[in-house]
Design brief:
- The complex is a heterodimer of chains A (145) and B (626).
- Chain A is α+β, with helices and mostly antiparallel strands.
- In chain A, 41% of the residues lie in helices and 19% in strands.
- Chain A has one domain: SCP2 sterol-binding domain (Nonspecific Lipid-transfer Protein, Chain A, 2-Layer Sandwich).
- Chain A contains 7 helices and 5 strands, in the order H-H-E-E-E-E-H-H-E-H-H-H.
- A 5-stranded mixed sheet of chain A has the order 3-2-1-4-5.
- In chain A, strand 2 (47-52) and strand 3 (59-62) form a beta hairpin.
- Chain A starts with 6 loop residues before the first helix and ends in a 17-residue tail after the last helix.
- With 626 residues, chain B is of the alpha+beta class.
- Chain B has 3 domains: 7-209, Aldehyde Ferredoxin Oxidoreductase,  A, domain 1 (4-Layer Sandwich), CATH 3.60.9.10; 256-424, Orthogonal Bundle (Aldehyde Ferredoxin Oxidoreductase Protein, subunit A, domain 2), CATH 1.10.569.10; 442-624, Orthogonal Bundle (Aldehyde Ferredoxin Oxidoreductase Protein, subunit A, domain 3), CATH 1.10.599.10.
- Chain B contains 25 helices and 17 strands.
- In chain B, strand 1 (7-12) and strand 2 form a beta hairpin.
- The two termini of chain B are 39 Å apart.
- The mean pLDDT of chain B is 97.
- Classes of the chains: A alpha+beta (145), B alpha+beta (626).
């Protein structure tokens, strides 16, 4: 059993975070320049989310299994969760098939510096949205009132 | 047997004697090729007269191919060189791709052993059976590009097949201790000053052309393996990335984990990184894809700067390490200036890692008041000053002014600058560390420390294995889950990465980039199908182990001890923020475990009985009887 018990909870947490990133200009502006449409397929529990950067705004679409994606990325929900803390060695995960990627991957790699601020955002987002139990960062200290 | 050309050339530049010795197949079986051959031949040559300076005529030089070099397959175009390093004073070697190795084998030779010193500037001409030492005075003083073009044109009519030139530039002639040897203007045997050794021997170049081919022992099985590997390569994200962007693809990944040294190893995060990343390279300087002999990966790129202060003609684009040393290390966000510095290094023939890292060291000295504009003759060596970085690069290449001091490398320059200059060094055994931070992966720290040639990410397979680009499930120690920012288990990991790595990168000479997707079964099968030998995994690991001890033993014989295995202060300073916050390798623990595993004494030298136990009696005698 992974960290998330249900697909609904996974969607609530990760889907919500994708929407936060979509509304964060320092990240979104660079993602939009890529024009990529990425489908994330998670397992244990299962969830499909499309992040569409082809328009004027980033469109996050859970359960979209139909639209044509430029990049397909598959991984377990736990790997995905750890990734957003900056705790996954992406090169190793791809080499050891913990993540499977299809499509123009060099274009995805070029987005990594753009999404780097999200690593600091994720634990904060979890704490501020009632998902504290999913915050696995030891060093992170919640903001004081 | 297949794979081998069947002869080794012995060329004595002092006497002009040229010998073609048949390759002993028992020797081939025992050492595979590359620096497996090279280190043993070198040891045999020096054992009776082992005290000499690296730049003296008594220092032999070995250039060796592997059994796969010259085959039309991905990631096997490489060849290797080795000798005593003028930069470090220890064993030095370098591994290089390109086309020269293939041509040498087509001419009928697995390697060249060069001894002595020519009376006047010379080059070696090889065209099948014709091998001559010729006058090179008309090429002496010319840069790498001019020498390559002119020699190729001058010799074109003398060989039926096109030849390949490997040569030194003015830096090698001037004995700059980090001068390189370069094939085809871009493929550099860059590290540890191999070019200066050629300069000291008055050897400007080697031209090789051959009309032969390389036999394959079992072509049918090799064909099946090549088919299998097609899918492996198609599915490899790593290959996809380096094909698209070359080695600078790592800038996008490395900045996430804190792998990239910034501001002479004082930072791991930098908001301007995108200005010199793969996207900027593509937008601003990219001018085409290039490759090595027979390799479809094509990780080499061309660059061009059409106008402005850093204008450069189309030529080799900077590799990741070069973008690191001249870019992130110096806080230089101008990619055109990095391309220009790379162009200068290639033309003069100097190692971009040592050169760029030495400039970053000098900037640190300047910013901390240890040197000033009077010392640098008006050059403001400040962080991010692109113009000054390029100017100083050229002064180093020409050995002019303050550049002459830096042309000795940062470790020797620190001694002359004095005060606390050594605080800013990033060297191990006098070799500047590459652009991968051990605070991000502690095993790199041990790898840099105990590498025979000094701080180096290619001296074993620890970097690709711990970094994640390579996966070898057949070897238990390499198949485990690795926690990068921990020092636990890194000694045993390093031992395994050295033993298998010596087979992979030094003896068979697979490319650490283009052959990254291969697992041990595939790599071993390839060697067996080509050579006709029936190596087992255990056997090649034992061969790798023996070659590693040979390299380490030579470095120990040349004077290295445990104190030389330590990392410099800059690499051991805890970062206060960023991805590696609070992470520092525990060198004491890792070295202690490593010495135990390798059977070292407390001085960092393999015990006599350990060397004798693996058949290195001559080496044991050299170390313990001198």
């Amino acid at each position: 059993m992974g960290m998330f018990k249900t697909s609904e909870k996974l969607e609530e947490v990760l889907g919500g975070f994708f929407k936060l990133m979509a509304d964060t200009p320092v990240i979104a502006d660079k993602l939009l320049k890529s024009k990529l449409v990425i489908r994330f397929s998670y397992t244990d529990p299962d969830l499909v989310v499309v992040v569409d950067c082809s328009g004027e705004k980033i469109d996050v679409r859970p359960h979209d299994t139909d639209s044509k994606a430029i990049v397909e990325m598959s991984m377990s929900s736990d790997i995905a969760h750890r990734f957003w803390f900056g705790m996954v060695n992406l090169t190793k995960a791809l080499t050891r098939k913990e993540m499977i990627a299809k499509g123009p991957i060099p274009k995805v790699l070029k987005l990594l510096p753009a999404i780097k601020p999200s690593y600091a955002m994720y634990p904060k987002y979890l704490d501020e949205n009632g998902f504290e139990q999913y915050n696995i960062t030891k060093a992170y200290k919640p903001p004081t009132a | 047997m297949g794979g081998y050309a069947g002869q080794i050339l012995y060329i004595d530049l002092s006497s002009g004697r040229i010998e073609k010795k048949p390759l002993d197949m028992n020797f081939a079986r025992k050492y595979i090729g590359g620096l497996g051959f090279g280190t043993q031949i070198y040891l045999d040559l020096i054992k009776d007269n082992p005290e000499f300076d690296a730049l003296s005529e008594n220092n032999p030089f070995v250039l060796m191919t592997g059994p796969l070099t010259g085959l039309k397959m991905d990631g096997v175009a490489r060849w290797a060189v080795g000798t005593k390093s003028p930069l470090t004073g220890f064993w030095g070697d370098a591994n290089v791709g390109g086309y020269f190795g293939a041509r040498l084998k087509f001419a009928g030779y697995d390697g060249i052993v060069i001894t002595g010193k020519a009376e006047k500037p010379s080059y070696i001409f090889i065209n099948d059976d014709v091998v001559e030492i010729r006058d090179a005075q008309k090429y002496w003083g010319k840069d790498i590009y001019e020498t390559t073009d002119e020699l190729s044109a001058d010799l074109k009519s003398e060989s039926a097949k096109p030849g390949q030139v490997v040569c030194i530039g003015p830096a090698g002639e001037q004995l700059i201790t980090f001068a390189s040897i370069i094939n085809n203007k871009r493929h550099a045997a860059g590290r540890t000053g191999m070019g200066a050794v050629w300069g000291s021997k008055n050897l400007k170049a080697i031209y090789a052309s051959g009309s032969g081919n390389i036999e394959i022992s079992d072509p049918d099985k090799l064909k099946v393996l090549k088919e299998e590997l097609k899918t492996v390569y198609e599915e490899s994200i790593f290959i996809d990335a380096i094909h698209a962007s070359g080695t600078p693809a790592h800038l996008d990944v490395g900045i996430i984990s804190g792998d990239i040294p910034i501001k002479n190893w004082q930072m791991t995060e930098w908001e301007d990184i995108d200005d010199i990343g793969p996207g900027s390279i593509e937008d601003k300087i990219f001018a085409g894809h290039k490759t090595c002999y027979g390799c479809s990966v094509a990780c080499k790129k061309d660059a061009e700067v059409k106008d402005g202060p850093y204008k450069m003609d189309k030529g080799p684009s900077p590799e990741y390490e070069t973008v690191g040393t001249f870019g992130t290390m110096c806080l230089n966000k101008n990619i055109e200036s990095i391309a220009k510095a790379n162009d200068i290094c290639n033309r003069y023939g100097i190692d971009t890692i040592t050169c760029g890292a030495t400039i970053a060291f000098a900037i640190d000295c300047f910013e901390n008041g240890l040197i000033n504009e009077t010392d640098t003759e008006g050059i403001k060596l400040t962080w991010g000053n692109s113009e000054a970085i390029v100017e100083m690069c050229e002064k180093i290449a020409k050995k002019e002014g303050f550049g002459a001091l830096l042309a000795e490398g940062s470790a020797k320059a620190a001694l002359k600058i004095g005060k606390n200059a050594s605080d800013f060094l990033t060297t191990v055994k006098g070799l500047e560390a590459p652009m991968h931070d051990p605070r991000n992966a502690h095993g790199y720290g041990l790898a840099y420390g105990i590498s025979p040639r000094g701080a180096c990410h290619e001296a074993s397979l620890d970097f690709p294995v711990e970094g994640g680009s390579m996966y070898i499930p057949e070897i238990e120690e390499l198949a485990v889950d690795i926690e990068e920012m921990s020092s636990d288990g890194k000694a045993i990991l390093n031992v395994a990465c050295q033993d298998y790595g010596m087979f992979f990168s030094s003896c068979a000479i697979f490319c650490n980039l283009g052959a990254t997707p291969l697992n041990a079964t595939q790599a071993l099968s390839m060697v067996n199908y080509v050579t006709g030998f029936d190596y087992t995994l255990e056997e090649i690991i034992n061969i790798g182990k023996r070659v590693w001890y040979l390299k380490r033993g030579l470095t120990n014989f040349f004077g290295a001890r445990a104190k030389d295995d330590m990392l410099p202060k800059r690499l051991m300073t805890e970062m206060k923020d960023g991805p590696t916050e609070g992470s520092v390798p525990d060198m004491e623990k890792m070295l202690s475990e490593f010495y135990e595993l390798r059977g070292f004494n407390k001085d960092g030298v393999p015990k006599k009985e350990v060397l004798e136990g693996i058949g290195l009696t001559t080496l044991a005698g050299l170390i313990y009887n001198n």
